[in-house]
Amino acid sequence: MDERELAKWYAGGRVAIGVLALLFPGWLVSLLVGGERTRAAKTLGRMLGVRDAVLGAGTLVALQEEKVPLRPWMTYGAVADAVDALAILLAYRSLPKWRRFAMLLTAVGGAATGGYLVTRFDD
To answer: For residue 37, which phi and psi values (nearest 5 degrees)?
Structure first.
C-alpha cells in the first residue's frame, strides 16, 4: 500500500468515526468512557464527531484536488490524535480498565500514522 492509499484509509476512517459520533453521540461516548448517555455526553460526542468528519473530509478533498495542499490536513489529523492520546493519558486511571488501553492504542496509532504521512507529502 502506498502513502496516498494509506492516507485515503486514514481519512476515510476518520470520516466514518465522525459520522458515527454525529449519528450516535451518546452511544459512542458511553462506549469509550462508560457512564450514562446524558445530554452532556451527546454534546461531547457530536463535538468530536464533527471534528473528525471535517478533518477526514478535508484530507479526502486534498487527496483528490491538486490545488488543495494535503500536508496541512495530515498535520491537523495527527495533532488531533496526539492531543487525544495526551488527554487519555491524563485521565487514564479514571477510565474503564478494558477501554483505556484500546483508546490509547487507537489515539497513538492515529498520531503515529498521521505523523508518518505528514513526512511523505511535500505540499
So the answer is: -90, 70
Closest residue by Cα to residue 14 from 118, 116, 121, 106: 106
Please give the grid coordinates belonging to residue 96: 474503564
Which residues, 6 or more positions from 92, have their beta carbon under 8 angstroms from its beta carbon? 100, 104
User: Crossing angle for the helix pair 97-120 and 3-23, nearest 10 degrees?
Assistant: 140
Using CA atoms of 79, 29, 100, 16 in order, give the dihedral in degrees to the nearest 10. -50
Q: For the chain, 123 residues long, give each residue's pLDDT as a single digit of tens.
A: 899 999 999 999 999 999 999 999 988 888 887 777 889 889 989 999 999 999 999 999 999 998 999 999 999 999 999 999 999 999 999 988 888 999 999 999 999 999 999 999 887
pTM: 0.89
